[in-house]
Structures are given as C-alpha cells and as structure tokens.
Amino acid sequence: MNNQKINRFIQRLGKPMPSSTVDNFYHKSSEGYFLKRKNLRIYLHKMIELQPKIILVGEAPGYKGCKLTGVPFSSERLMLEEQLPFGQSIGYKLLAQMRKPTSESSATILWQTIWKAGITPLCWNAFPFHPHHHEQPNSNRKPTKEERIAGSYFLKRIIHLYKPDKVVAVGQSATDALELLKMEHQHIRHPSYGGKRDFEDGISNLIG
C-alpha cells in the first residue's frame, strides 16, 4: 500500500453527504473534518508499519468515539495514550483542545484487552459513518441493512488493502455485514452491554 491509495480511500470516505440520521464526519461540511481525515491517515499509515494479521470489524462509529477522532474504535482519551497505534507523539490531534478529553467504553475495553494480549489488530467498522436517531445527533443506533450495504465498499476495500490473515466480526452487525460480502470470518462478542468478559475470551481464543 502507498500514500496514493490511502489518500484515495480517505477522499472516497468524504464524498457521501450527511443526512438527518447519518453524520459523515469526513465530509467537508462537518466541523473538524480535515483533522479527522488527518488522524485517520496517520492511523492507516501506522498500521502499514505494524502489518496487522487481524482485522476487527465493529458496528459503526459512536458519538463519543470515532465521530470525534476520525479513527475506528478510538476516543479522545485513547488518542493521548502513548501506546501503539496512538499517541500525540505520532501526530494525532484532538478537535477540542480546551475541554476534558472524552472516553468511550467499548473502545477502552477493546484496546485495554488487545494491549494486554500483545497484539495490534487493524480496526474498522461495517458502516464507517455515525448513525443516530432523528434530531438526536448525540445518540447511537445500529446501522440498517441498507447502510451496511453502503459500508461494504469501504469494508471490502480496507480488507483488500491490508490483506489480514483473520477477519473477525465484533458483534452481530459486523457479522451481518461480512455475510453480505460472503467473506470468511470469525465472530466474537461485542464488549458493550456486559460483554467485556466474553470479548476478552474471544480475543484470547484468537491468539491462543
């Protein structure tokens, strides 16, 4: 993979227009879109260096996490951690410098678990934009089948670019998206809603 391929991928992410129930935070109409694209570019380049053998596919960005940072399964607080693939020393920047960094529970559980396991998988989402309820931008909802279909272009492309040995669905929405692509994959429990222990066991089984 090279800079040109990453740039084209990110530019393509920025094309779909936001809607009343979907926030494309990479689109030029979104506040801080340029910084979020830059953070994603840093992340994707860092993952080239790390050569991940596993891709973890989640559901969709949340309003406390990826929507603010531009990086899947992250949060502002995680991006300040000097543990790969994060850290201000690498060049990540936060949109809001003057307030307390936000945290996102699922992302925190995920990275604490995989740091402990000694692996650094590539993370992506079945739907790469933030789905929310009507007139409730600070809410999360599951992506619809149509949205998962729309996200399949980016999911398929990211898998093709990195060619991981294992494709792993984190939760049912990710499983549904990978089944739409007829792509061989494994499934583990999503860490939200009391799934932390099962998620930890799933990660252990992946590397065991």
Shape designation: globular
CATH topology: Uracil-DNA Glycosylase, subunit E
Which whole number gives the mean pLDDT? 95
Under the CATH scheme, the architecture is 3-Layer(aba) Sandwich
- So what's the oligomer here? single chain
Content of β-strand: 5-15%
CATH class: Alpha Beta
Distance between the termini: 29 Å
Q: Structural class from helices and strands?
A: alpha/beta
Q: Residue share in helices?
A: 40-55%
Q: Helix tally?
A: 8
What can you see in these coordinates?
By secondary structure, this protein is an alpha/beta fold. It has a single domain (3-9, 24-36, 52-122, 147-207), classed as 3-Layer(aba) Sandwich (Uracil-DNA Glycosylase, subunit E). The protein has helices spanning 3-13, 33-50, 66-69, 76-80, 105-117, 145-162, 172-180, 196-207, and strands spanning 22-23, 54-58, 122-125, 130-131, 166-170, 186-188. The strands form 2 sheets. It has a 4-stranded parallel β-sheet with strand order 3-2-5-6. The chain is globular, with a radius of gyration of 16 Å.
